[in-house]
Amino acid sequence: MVYYTQVLFVVEGQEAIFESFEEQVLPLLSQFNGELLYRVRPPRSAVLTTSIGYPYEIHLVCFPRQTDFEAYRDNPQRLACLPLKDQSIARVLLIEGKAL
Fold first, then answer.
1. What is the distance, to the nearest Å, from the Cα of residue 66 to the centroid of all Cα atoms in its chain?
2. pLDDT at position 61, please?
3. Cα 41 to Cα 30: distance, rounded to the nearest angstrom
4. Can you tell me whether residue 66 is helix, strand or coil?
5. Where is 79: in which H helix or E strand?
6. CA–CA distances in Å: residue 14 to residues 19, 32, 76, 85, 90
7. How far, in Å, CA of 82 to CA of 21, rounded?
8. Across the beta sheet with 89-97, what order do the strands follow?
9. Residue 57: pLDDT above 90?
10. For residue 87, what is the enclosing H or E element?
């Protein structure tokens, strides 16, 4: 099992565009054996310390295999939505991991 944590920083004022992107791509996860384990929108008050800013959302997803993630990442339907992502997301921190 491979795990991916995404820390998402959304461009101020582009939240609706970001949510439109999410509505289109998150349902695709299951087609590639992926599962959204957590989708958190933390309030600023929940961040005790930061040197990188305040995230809009944090996602934790998992896939049984790296190839499942790659198939999701490279899916044409998801790729067609990338202009929404590019317009709404300032930056993303993607962390790959595994259960210990």
1. 16
2. 98
3. 22
4. helix
5. helix 76-79
6. 9, 28, 24, 10, 10
7. 8
8. 35-40, 57-63, 2-10, 89-97
9. yes
10. helix 82-88
Instruction: Tell which CATH classification among 3.30.70.100, 3.40.50.1970, 3.40.640.10, 1.10.760.10 matches the domain 2-97.
Output: 3.30.70.100
Q: Tell me the residue type at 22.
A: E
Report the alpha-carbon distance of residue 37 to residue 80 in Å, rounded.
24
Q: Compute the distance between CA of residue 87 and CA of residue 17 in angstroms, rounded to an integer.
A: 8
Summary mean pLDDT of the chain: 96
- Residue appearing with tokens 């044409």: 76
Q: Positive or negative CA dihedral for 47, 48, 54, 58?
A: negative
Residue carrying structure tokens 């958190």? 40
pLDDT at 99 over 90: no
